[in-house]
Amino acid sequence: FAYLLDPLFHTIGYLFLVEMESLRAFWTSMYNAPIAPLTRFNNTVVLGSLVSALVLVVPVFSGMKKFVVAYRSHIGARIEKMKIYQAISKSWIIQWYKKIRDIGGGS
Fold first, then answer.
1. pLDDT tens column, 53-69
2. CA distances from 55 to 22, 36, 60 (A)
3. pLDDT band at residue 102, thresholds of 50, 70 and 90?
4. Distance CA 38, CA 30 (A)
5. How far is C-alpha 24 from the geometric centre of its chain's CA atoms?
6. Dist. CA 86–CA 88, nearest whole Å
7. Among candidates 74, 20, 64, 80, which has minimal Cα distance to 44?
8. Has this prediction a pTM greater than 0.90?
9. Is the Cα dihedral 9, 11, 15, 19 positive or negative?
């Protein structure tokens, strides 16, 4: 999926790396730092992906939180009544997972 967005990430990274003259000194100092070049921030796709992720983290988190709450209150109860769900939830691997989860203090 990310490969489909690479052109967009490249455009965003190019904007930050090349077109914003005010950031040029910052990128130069980062490139000359001992560890920062290992992050490959000087690659337009990498930097564009990072900037996109930082911009989208809050909206995606809040949207997913709303989705999970809606799922648990509306759809989850219907799915738990399905025979396939009941059969899978009784399998040995799911029972083993629940034991491990409960050891860790999960609910």
1. 999 999 999 999 999 99
2. 20, 21, 9
3. confident
4. 10
5. 28
6. 6
7. 20
8. no
9. positive
